[in-house]
Structures are given as structure tokens and as C-alpha cells.
Amino acid sequence: MSAQPIAQSRPGPAGRSGPTAGRPRGRAGHLTVLAIPENEPPPLQPGARPEPPDPRYVQGSLAVDFRREGHDELFGPQSTRRLDLPDPEAWARRLITAILEAMDGLRPASQLSRWVAPDIRERIDRRGILARQRHQRPGGALQVRALRVCEPIDGVAEVAAVIGYRSRVRALALRMSGVDGRWLITALELG
Questions:
Q1: Is the dihedral of CA 7, 12, 16, 17 positive or negative?
Q2: What is the dihedral of CA 30, 35, 37, 38, to 10 degrees?
Q3: What pLDDT tens digit does each residue of the chain (191 aa) get?
Q4: Using an 8 Å Cβ cutoff, are 182 and 173 in contact?
Q5: Distance in angstroms (rounded) separating the CA atoms of residues 81 and 74
Q6: Is residue 13 helix, strand or coil?
Q7: For residue 72, what are the CA distances in angstroms to 6, 78, 79, 178?
């Protein structure tokens, strides 16, 4: 769009109207032709060797490292102190029940996204998919028979539980870390 004022619409010769009504037919607007910029590197001199590529970058990959100096501590996940978190024992009971229901295929694993680390959620999801494909039915009511919570450091709770699961008694261990004001399961083992 040009910055020129808009021409008033007035009738021109042969009944034409609009901004080009008074102009002769063969005349076009002014165009400026610019040369194509050089974007190729200059050729090497005879006998010269090209510089080796930077070993930090791999061709075909985005050269960004999110693990080091690019990590912003203000906007990443924030650890939370124990005083700002709910009771770990009650929370662990609820999460264990939800996890085992997802492993049985009774609940979608995506419902656990907020409280379970992504790699653990994928494991739970795979087991739930297999249970649905095999048409497995839970072997009895799920119950948490015993639960012990240990808090080794501020904002971390380690849970050991004995559960009745599929008509068997099994052991379950998990680690919950306080992240962004909630418990996040970062480790899970079911024996």
C-alpha cells in the first residue's frame, strides 16, 4: 500500500470512474528496481581450506541447548516448601488409587498429567492400553492396606505402600516432590 493520498472518484472519459479515471491508459505507476543482494559466501582462494564446522552444532538439528545458560530459573518449574503443600499421606492415597485405576485401563492416564512426571505417565499409559487390549478386569477391590511417608528433605516425600491389587498383595514405592505448589510424582515402582 502506498502512502499517497487517495484520489477522488470522478467520472472520466467513456464513463469510467474511480481513482484511475483521469489517466491515460498506457501510463503505469512508478516502480523502483533493486539489485538482488549477495547472500552466498565468497569463494575460497586457490589452495585455501574451509574452516571446520563448530562441533557444538549438528547439521539438521536446532542448535539450542535448553539445559545450560538458556534455563531461566524464574519461569521454569519452582520447588515448593513443605509448608505450602497438602498432607502427603492423604495425597499419596488418592494418587495411588488413581494410578492403579489408570494401569487397569479404567481411567485415562492423561488425567494424571498434572501430578505425575511425563516419563512415568507414559509407563502408566502403556500398561493401561495393554490392560484394555487384553480386556483385563480388575481382580477385586483396590485398597491401600498400609502407607508410610518419610520426608528426607524439605519439599520431598517418599512413600512406601502395601496395596491389595488384582487379588494380590503388592508393594508400591513412590517419590513426590513439591513443584509449583503441588505434589509431583517423580519416581514410581510397583512390585
A1: positive
A2: 170
A3: 445 555 554 555 555 555 555 555 555 678 888 888 887 777 778 888 777 766 665 555 555 555 555 455 667 788 888 888 899 999 999 999 999 989 888 889 989 989 999 999 999 999 988 888 887 666 667 888 999 999 999 999 999 999 987 678 999 999 999 998 899 999 999 98
A4: no
A5: 16
A6: helix
A7: 50, 11, 14, 19
User: 11's torsion region: left (phi>0), alpha (psi -120 to 50) or beta?
Assistant: beta
* Sole residue written with cell 477385586: 140
Contact 163, 143 (CB under 8 A): yes
Q: Which domains does the chain have, with CATH numbers?
A: 87-190 (3.10.450.50)
* Angle between helix 118-133 and 88-103 (nearest 10): 40
Give 79's strand partners.
Answer: 179
Contact between 168 and 139 under an 8 Å Cβ cutoff? The reply is yes
Helix ranges, the chain (H): 88-103, 118-133
| Cβ pair 156, 144 in contact under 8 A | no
Decide: 177 and 95 in contact? Cβ < 8 Å: no
- Using alpha carbons, list the distances in angstroms from residue 129 to 9, 44, 106, 142, 144: 69, 58, 10, 19, 23
